[in-house]
Design goal:
Pfam families: DUF3159 (PF11361). Keywords: Membrane, Transmembrane, Transmembrane helix. The protein is an all-alpha fold. It has one domain. It has 9 helices and no strands.
Length: 219
């Protein structure tokens, strides 16, 4: 096994570990499942569905806090669930529970596209911070290009959700929205992480030392 192969394997494992997000992705799918189940088995009661979602969200938040999660991140997740429940109760349309998620995906797609346009691809920002690199990766043109190309995969993730969610929301299809939320959470994230790693690695020159070793530009 060559040194280059070892570096590539280490980078891949680090990338998957940093961005896999399995726990958070699963957590994000549980309140919508609770809402859909509560709504369906509660005789299509939005109040019951909303209460079930908030309770599950609170339980997840408590569990994550006990495991050392950041309080702000936990609070934001719980507030998003509560907001969805309040909107649905206010409008009387159960499908509106998913409106905050639609808005979140639309804003995320816009943010990632903007970051690519200004040459601060968010994938590089996230990985750079996680690896303690600061802005070192920004001084490596190959990494900037690789992260930019790989960031388009993440844009695609959000666009796929919007393409599926928006017609279902317009149709008021609460059940299918619940199912779509599950399918397009952890499974889609897993595909996105794997695909973005492939794009990043293929975008770097063969002699590049990898994402953990940004190269300084030639003087």
């Amino acid at each position: 096994m060559t040194q280059e192969t070892d570096i590539e394997r280490d980078d891949r494992d680090s990338f998957m570990r940093l961005l896999g997000g399995r726990g958070s992705a699963i957590d994000a799918s549980l309140p919508p499942i609770a809402f859909g189940a509560g709504w369906f088995f509660g005789g299509e009661s939005i109040v019951i569905g909303g209460a079930a979602a908030v309770v599950v969200g609170a339980l997840i938040g408590g569990f994550r806090l006990s495991r050392g999660a950041r309080p702000l991140a936990v609070l934001i997740s719980l507030l998003a669930v509560m907001l969805g429940a309040l909107i649905a109760i206010r409008t009387g349309d159960a499908a509106d529970f998913f409106l905050p998620r639609l808005a979140s995906n639309a804003l995320s797609a816009l943010a990632w596209m903007t970051s690519i346009a200004i040459r601060w691809p968010l994938l590089g920002v996230v990985v750079g911070v996680a690896l303690g690199q600061g802005r070192k990766w920004r001084r490596d043109p190959d990494l900037v290009r690789g992260y930019s190309r790989a960031s388009w995969v993440w844009v695609g993730q959000y666009v796929v959700r919007l393409v599926v969610f928006i017609p279902l929301w317009l149709a008021g299809a609460t059940g299918p929205l619940t199912i779509a939320q599950v399918v397009l959470t952890w499974p889609l994230v897993a595909v996105c992480v794997a695909a973005s790693w492939w794009v990043l690695r293929r975008s770097l020159p063969e002699d590049h030392p990898g994402m953990r070793h940004p190269r300084e530009p030639a003087a």
